[in-house]
Specification:
about 0% strand; about 600 residues; 34 helices; mainly alpha
């Protein structure tokens, strides 16, 4: 391969293209959780009011545009293209900046930065705004050096107020890079421009603070970094950004390596590029987290109310994630299978896979409403959704919960407001239209399979909710409403987890009145154990009877156990192999 061919061959363009394609492919195939999480925790509304809400401080325009792009995360492929394009544009911009500062193409440092940003973006909590804010700053700086001879070199000074308004706290990247570039020119005019730039930026923050937004300067300087997301390695991000801001200085450092090489392009193509590919693939392999991906796929199915699909997916991909199991248990309850399949999935003896305790931080608040909605505590479900809205802003699923609870309560005016917001989103307008038809129509609400059922089991009398002990609320529901089968499902499930077969046996005569046409499998297992072990007189379960299959399975269980001389430890592998999805195995080994 000769030099003439290499000069004609667009190596750099192909390298950047392959970099983008690798990122887009990886994110679409292995990082779907990123798009589910960020799309479900954000919302974009096409309205003047929403735009105004996001322009309450410098950087709001960047936040607004980020929410617009994040809305497209609704589709995994679109999300993969967006995040990959942003990172690739950062790489291209850095490469162009180095070229303008140094006069030669040096793609390797830019691609290394790209790999670092790729590493960060594989964390589903690393928001798009961090890379997008960096990209905007780099573009501002690129404009200032590309057109440095225009307007007598005043471009950076003129861009400063606009940069502050658009990006808020990100402006420090532009400030440091521009100041370094001016200082390195080492002449009076450049130093004066640097001082003037600093004065303009300071004055912009002062002006915005005292005359436009009426917030402290510190608050304006921190936004949009005001909220630190747990789990994100910001120290890595800030380290990468810090090195990038030093580009004007680093560009002055002489590189002697390439001078010793006969052909720098050949060196890049045959040596460096394969190493970068290896680095990319290695980062992708290390950062891939199948458990997190599985959880968010479950959450996506759950948000679409595909409860049978949730159960099927968790059956095929067992998880130990408490939130995953919590959503799965809600899905089991909604499909009437909670006490038939409870032990087909891992459970926590303390009940934390059945109920979520109140928590203002973290991920619990935006999910806890589902349990209360399922058992008919509509007002409590609404409270959880509303508090999450107050704490973290509107979200698609939060709005849907507020709409449903408002419709069930007959608060059509409030439901109409929430529907209006949802109707003006990019991808949830069909949901809004579905709910809109229920407005001011009690009969239609009552006939809906979901809303009507929740309206029927809705609490008729209020009581003080114990958020730290959800099981107490289940007991109170049953004390005031004897027809709430879903509440009874949860009570029985909790008693199973506590291995309280005596209390389960005492409830057998009441099951028919709750609408049970057959004894749930695990309840049958617990009751049979109570009967065979003669733990007390077994109350008559009415017309509900033990099935022959359960009695045969119990006999097989006992025979297997006795085959190991009644030794719990020795029998465990055999019992787990045949009976791990039974109450009996749970009672023995948990």
């Amino acid at each position: 391969m000769n030099k003439t061919f290499l000069n004609k061959f667009p190596i750099l363009a192909i390298s950047y293209g392959l970099f983008f394609l690798f990122l887009a492919t990886y994110f679409s195939l292995f990082e779907s959780q990123l798009f589910v999480y960020q799309e479900k925790t954000s919302i974009f509304v096409l309205s003047v009011d929403f735009l105004t809400e996001n322009l309450t401080q410098p950087g709001g325009l960047l936040v607004y545009f980020t929410k617009f792009l994040t809305a497209f995360f609704y589709y995994t492929i679109a999300g993969a293209i967006i995040v990959s394009l942003v990172i690739t544009l950062i790489v291209l911009t850095i490469s162009e900046i180095i070229y303008l500062l140094r006069g030669k193409k040096y793609p390797i440092p830019a691609l290394i930065f790209g790999i670092g940003l790729f590493y960060l973006q594989t964390n589903y909590q690393f928001l798009l705004i961090y890379n997008l804010g960096l990209l905007v700053q780099l573009l501002f700086f690129l404009m200032s050096i590309r057109y440095n001879t225009h307007l007598k070199g005043a471009i950076p000074i003129l861009l400063a107020p606009l940069c502050v308004f658009m990006t808020g706290g990100f402006v420090w990247i532009f400030l440091i890079m521009t100041t370094l570039n001016l200082i390195l020119q080492w002449n009076i005019k450049a130093l004066i421009k640097g001082l003037l730039l600093l004065t303009i930026l300071s004055g912009s923050f002062y002006f915005f603070s005292h005359f436009i937004y009426f917030q402290s300067i510190n608050a304006l300087l921190l936004y949009p970094f005001s909220t630190v997301v747990e789990g994100v390695k910001f120290e890595v991000y800030f380290a990468i950004v810090a090195v990038i801001t030093l580009l004007p200085l680093l560009a002055k450092v002489k590189v002697t390596l390439q001078k010793k090489l006969r052909d720098a392009r050949v060196a890049f193509y045959f040596i460096t590029f394969p190493n970068l590919v290896v680095a990319l693939v290695t980062v992708g392999i290390i950062q891939f987290d199948s458990k997190t991906r599985d959880y968010f796929l479950v959450e996506k199915l759950f948000s679409q109310e595909k409860y049978s699909d949730v159960i099927a997916y968790n059956t095929a991909h067992p998880s130990m994630n408490i939130l995953t199991i919590f959503l799965n248990n809600v899905a089991l309850c909604e499909t009437g299978k909670l006490n038939d399949q409870l032990f087909h999935f891992p459970q926590m003896p303390d009940g934390s896979t059945l109920f979520l305790k109140w928590e203002m931080q973290g991920e619990v608040l935006r999910r806890g409403a589902y349990f209360y909605y399922t058992i008919g505590m509509v007002n409590e479900a609404q409270r959880w959704a509303f508090e999450n809205m107050v704490m973290k802003g509107n979200t698609p699923e939060g709005l849907k919960m507020l709409i449903k609870t408002s419709l069930i309560n007959g608060n059509y005016e409030m439901a109409s407001k929430y529907i209006s917001l949802l109707k003006n989103t990019l991808f949830y307008n069909n949901d809004a239209l579905k709910y809109e038809k229920f407005l001011f129509n009690d009969k239609l609400v009552g006939s809906d399979p979901d809303l009507g059922e929740k309206q029927k089991i809705k609490m008729k009398s209020d009581f003080f909710v114990i958020s730290d002990n959800p099981y107490v609320n289940v007991e109170r529901i049953l004390a005031t409403d004897s027809l709430n089968r879903k509440a009874m499902d949860y009570k029985l499930a909790y008693l199973l987890l506590k291995k309280n077969v005596k209390s389960i046996a005492q409830l057998l005569p009441k099951l028919e009145s709750y609408g049970y046409r057959k004894m749930p499998v695990h309840i049958e297992e617990a009751a049979l154990e109570f009967k065979v072990l003669k733990l007390g007189p077994l109350p008559q379960p009415g017309n509900l009877t033990f099935t022959p299959e359960t009695e045969i399975r119990w006999g097989d269980f006992i025979v297997t156990f006795k085959g190991f001389n009644n030794d719990l430890r020795s029998a465990e592998p055999a019992l787990r192999s045949k009976f791990k999805d039974t109450f009996w195995y749970y009672a023995f080994y948990h």
